[in-house]
Amino acid sequence: MDQLIISGRSFNSRLMVGTGKFSSNQAMVASMEASGCEIVTVALRRVDIDNPADSMLAHIDRNRYLLLPNTSGARDAEEAVRLARLSRAAGCEPWVKLEVTPDPYYLLPDPIETLKAAEILVKEGFTVLPYINADPVLAKHLQEAGTATVMPLGAPIGTNKGVRTREQIAIIIEQAIVPVVVDAGLGAPSHAAEAMEMGADAVLVNTALAVARDPGAMGAAFRKGVEAGREAYLAGLGEQRQQAEASSPLTGFLRD
Amino acid sequence: MDQLIISGRSFNSRLMVGTGKFSSNQAMVASMEASGCEIVTVALRRVDIDNPADSMLAHIDRNRYLLLPNTSGARDAEEAVRLARLSRAAGCEPWVKLEVTPDPYYLLPDPIETLKAAEILVKEGFTVLPYINADPVLAKHLQEAGTATVMPLGAPIGTNKGVRTREQIAIIIEQAIVPVVVDAGLGAPSHAAEAMEMGADAVLVNTALAVARDPGAMGAAFRKGVEAGREAYLAGLGEQRQQAEASSPLTGFLRD
Amino acid sequence: MDQLIISGRSFNSRLMVGTGKFSSNQAMVASMEASGCEIVTVALRRVDIDNPADSMLAHIDRNRYLLLPNTSGARDAEEAVRLARLSRAAGCEPWVKLEVTPDPYYLLPDPIETLKAAEILVKEGFTVLPYINADPVLAKHLQEAGTATVMPLGAPIGTNKGVRTREQIAIIIEQAIVPVVVDAGLGAPSHAAEAMEMGADAVLVNTALAVARDPGAMGAAFRKGVEAGREAYLAGLGEQRQQAEASSPLTGFLRD
Amino acid sequence: MDQLIISGRSFNSRLMVGTGKFSSNQAMVASMEASGCEIVTVALRRVDIDNPADSMLAHIDRNRYLLLPNTSGARDAEEAVRLARLSRAAGCEPWVKLEVTPDPYYLLPDPIETLKAAEILVKEGFTVLPYINADPVLAKHLQEAGTATVMPLGAPIGTNKGVRTREQIAIIIEQAIVPVVVDAGLGAPSHAAEAMEMGADAVLVNTALAVARDPGAMGAAFRKGVEAGREAYLAGLGEQRQQAEASSPLTGFLRD
Amino acid sequence: MQLVINGQSREVSAESLAELLVELQLDTSHVAVELNQAIVESSQFATTALNENDRLEVIQFVGGG
Amino acid sequence: MQLVINGQSREVSAESLAELLVELQLDTSHVAVELNQAIVESSQFATTALNENDRLEVIQFVGGG
Amino acid sequence: MQLVINGQSREVSAESLAELLVELQLDTSHVAVELNQAIVESSQFATTALNENDRLEVIQFVGGG
Amino acid sequence: MQLVINGQSREVSAESLAELLVELQLDTSHVAVELNQAIVESSQFATTALNENDRLEVIQFVGGG
Q: Which terminus of chain H has a lower count of CB atoms within 10 Å, N or C?
């Protein structure tokens, strides 16, 4: 059966879901469940000592979903490593979605600091899934450093623009020796399907689900989009052609 | 429940399938079944008197699928009308996918002759589904003439290029008073999903299924793509944004 | 020398300019002059009897520019024909940019009424330049009816979206027996250059000039864009390639 | 007057030309001259001892053109630094187009090694123009390291695909404190114009000139394309709009 | 008698359209017939007589998009 | 006399089209006139008499794309 | 004693980290703690004594992409 | 003496780098030379002696993008 395997662990779903920006925990859970996802990302933040909220983890079934802590907020390798270690101390398995985004405006990843952090975290035994610009050579460096995947962006986080980095992602996929997970910018199921049709191994979606009018229904829609793209990839898509080709036989009786 | 209604008739599936160019009747049937389609298009051609093949209709369950004869091969209104009448005489219900394509090379539809034929066929009681260029004003004329749908093309037949007429189709959808079925050029589930996310009521696919390495699996993939796009449309997609928006909370502890 | 010939008349410039929406006659003239255009479009409107403005024609050197009256505002063939005749009565040569746009919102052309009007006006001796949707079959009908050009739209009027109808315009150009003028939607010199590189014979620009911060400078920019695209078309552009190709010799001394 | 300034040196032309892949030195010179360029890139290679060709430099007027040696062929920082030093020893000014491309197939730049080499060469007093993937954060690192420009790619070298990295390049331009030169993949004047309209400070073109049927004429075409884009940028382009906007006044006499 | 069927002339013994279809071994379901440019409803096949040099078109459905 | 000019009724003293255009202070070059739906060539302005309740359209060129 | 917790100084009576979390009414599952920049494993909470002016970071998971 | 020039070993009579370039009939403008991995400035060509088995790289500019 067609499974996604990341550092020896198998998943049936090729859709990872982020838990940020949902209007409520209920909406988040509805979206997660409908999406069929098995991996959900989470972030770290200070507890508000004066009125501690109940942890959102209370709403996430740890038997069903693998928690993938991210290092969002980290502006350099050191901060990212610190966050990864804290996640582990907080009881997560040593998996980390590595994000190093010095620019608070576009939140684009830093290739230099990301590689530096990846090298450290791999040595410390983490399963590292780095979020990167769609840079094939950087992707190779990270794989050589031992990351479990590469996660090139389709478009800047939260823009819903789709796979704007198509040319580069196609090269990353062609050259990859680990799963390629397209992350960021996927705003509609058609975007997710497009990434999968190109041969991506998985996609990660958050904003498109969180901002949907109906996050639950959108989770189901993305699930189908991802499966559609994957199945089409496996079923062998036809080439684009410059000239039209009749889908009805033209020979006939009309003119003889 | 969300149904497609064409001239008073309800359909659960929003994917119509063409039956041309399949390598075998078995492949055709496998693709139709997996696609979940309820409407399949067929063409008319002379019987080869010297060795009459068994009709492909023998392979199509008429209780499950509505046959939609097309007028492919017609180069003007008169030929199209003649083909539509023959289809009815051959025992089909009076539904017709109206195609008038004078240019044998790109097989693009003729707006003038298509409208002329539509007016005649509507008067004769046909349910007319015209294949047209993505022309919003022509679409209006046809709706005023009483067609049951409009079927604007995404790209020339058989090119697999996707929704290249996006701007115009969006206008047709916005102004339509009958179902809009995007036809021709949809080469991948992501293309079908994109059309549905735009608000199209249905899509018609043939070449992408017939030329797939595995037409059955591709039928299933397109089914999911269409459903994904429709469900996303109903669930309310977010807007595209120019600036990135964090999906993780940025306030934190790292820098104070 | 490379000239544009429309119904026997030669032009050095392949850029036509519309005169609408300029902030002042001075800005309009500055843009026209800098653009190097030789054909300018104008519209017809009622004189305000109570305070008759001086005609904008006073600002246009009729020896330098050919006036091309349009039929903007016409919603059917009859209105378009009436406007064309009035233009001639008002002292213009019998050239007309035929526009029939029943939809006041998107101002898209009506293929049926445009063809009808074209047939009448050609019979009356007009040189007819019809504004049309990017419909190759309609373009053929118009050429058979005797129009002097076809003017397919790149995108809806005033949207500045560029050549969004690329696929269809390429077919129109390939099949055309009269000059193809890409009209509407060209918002930047790169758009105009793209159309010319595809083999268009000319382009018409208005909004992009009128709304520019500096219409004069923008006129000069479009002039260069049109010339760049035309010269590149004549100089023979290379193909797009899927794989990179070194522009530097790779054999060397670094690694032996 | 509008000039391009790179590390204190002024240039009238914003088009840089590569000298690779021309069919003859004559074609190369014709293209250079017609392009109006003031900066031309060159590569280094072993002399063939057994039959030394006359240097191509003999054909380049050093008073008219600044030679910009590249480090093509370098697969890591060390090789790139070695090539840069050799260029200087060969009598060039200490300017270098820094290219580090470990992948011989797509020739994409290495962000890690490029930054490493840039830091070394800046310290050695080179004026460094690094060729990079369209990575805004990497671009910032390089600028902080003291490079004279950043040269993000539009598409892989020699593909003629145009500005496929539009989203990212727009961010680089917005954040840049040195000139941004779009390099690689620009296959037509419209591509060069598009980059300049976005606010790029210059572009570098080679393949599109070298493979043109008429490299001289193509050089002239690109010159106009670059100027058109730059002038349009300065003249203030209008926004794209979703809805059509009449360029002719619609109030009138036809219907009252 | 001599007929022109689908563009080829042919000698047949059938005297009605129904007989012709049998003679040609054609499955009459889902075929449509034009006799001298006029459509013949299948219900009329049996009662439609054929005459020397009649022109017939016998049409069936095939795969199409 | 009373005319309807460009949709508004108006009292004028002119008796010919040419006089009317003068009375309205209109530059006669580049205006086109419809009198009761029929176009009047400018060469006919002087000899075109006006009658009570005539409907006139007086048109000119403006900027357009 | 006086501590700095998540950037704010605060008077507490707890003498061990475990006691502190109870005093602050924090669910100890899924919180991570840094004491003077060093991570404290949850297994060590009970045995980790607090001293005047210790700096603590108490962290938990929130939604993130 | 025996040198390795651009990867090929070669017998030459030149004793200085300058002489070598003459012997090889190379235009000395715009060539760069590495002697045993170290760059030799052109100003030093004349005074740079060659020794048995020296490894030389003689480089020139070619077209490049």
A: N
Residues of A in contact with G8 (CB under 8 A): 49
pLDDT on residue B256: 58
pLDDT tens, position by position, C100-154: 999 888 889 999 999 999 999 999 999 999 999 999 999 999 999 999 999 999 9
3-state SS assignment for residue B77: helix
Q: Say yes or no to pLDDT of D255 above 70.
A: no
Give the domain ranges of chain G: 2-60
Amino acid sitting at position F13 = S
Structural contact between residues A194 and A229, judged by C-beta atoms closer than 8 angstroms: yes
Q: How far is CA E21 from the centre of its chain?
A: 6
Q: Which chains touch F (3 or more CB pairs under 8 A)?
A: C, D
CA distance D92 to chain C (A): 18
**Contact: C155, B167; criterion CB under 8 Å:** yes
- Percent of chain D whose predicted confidence (pLDDT) is above 70: 94
d(CA C41, CA D109): 49
Give the residue from chain B lying closest to A159, CA to CA: B241
Query: Contact at 8 Å (CB) between A151 and A129?
Result: yes
8 A C-beta contact, residue A220 and residue A189: no
Of B112, B136, B165, the CB nearest to C108: B136
Q: Which residues of D touch A166 (CB under 8 A)?
A: 164
Contact residues for A239 (Cβ-Cβ < 8 A; gap 6+): B160
Best CATH choice for the domain F2-60 from the list 3.40.50.2300, 3.10.20.30, 3.30.70.260, 3.60.15.10: 3.10.20.30
Nearest to A193 among B70, B104, B193 (CB): B193
Size of interface B-G (CB pairs under 8 A): 14
| For residues B217-246, average pLDDT | 90
pTM: 0.93
- Compute the half-sphere exposure of residue C63: CA atoms within 13 Å on the CB side of its CA: 0
* Cβ contact A162:B166 at 8 Å: no
φ/ψ (deg, to 5) at D72? -60, 140
Given CB atoms, is A189 within the 8 Å cutoff of chain D? no
Instruction: Tell me whether residues E65 and B206 touch, CB distance under 8 A.
Output: yes
Shortest CB distance from C102 goes to which of B115, B137, B155? Answer: B137
Asked if B140 is an active-site residue, the reply is: no
Among B21, B97, B161, B224, the one annotated catalytic: B97
Query: What angle (nearest 5°) sits at the alpha carbon of residue F13, between those of residues F12 and F19?
Result: 100
Q: How far is the alpha carbon of F51 from chain D, nearest alpha carbon, in Å?
A: 21
Instruction: Give the Å distances, CA to CA, from D105 to A136, B190, B225, D192, D211.
Output: 12, 29, 34, 24, 19
- ipTM of the shown complex: 0.92
- Write out pLDDT tens, residues D128-174: 999 999 999 999 999 999 999 999 999 888 788 899 899 899 999 99
pLDDT for the residue numbered D243? 66
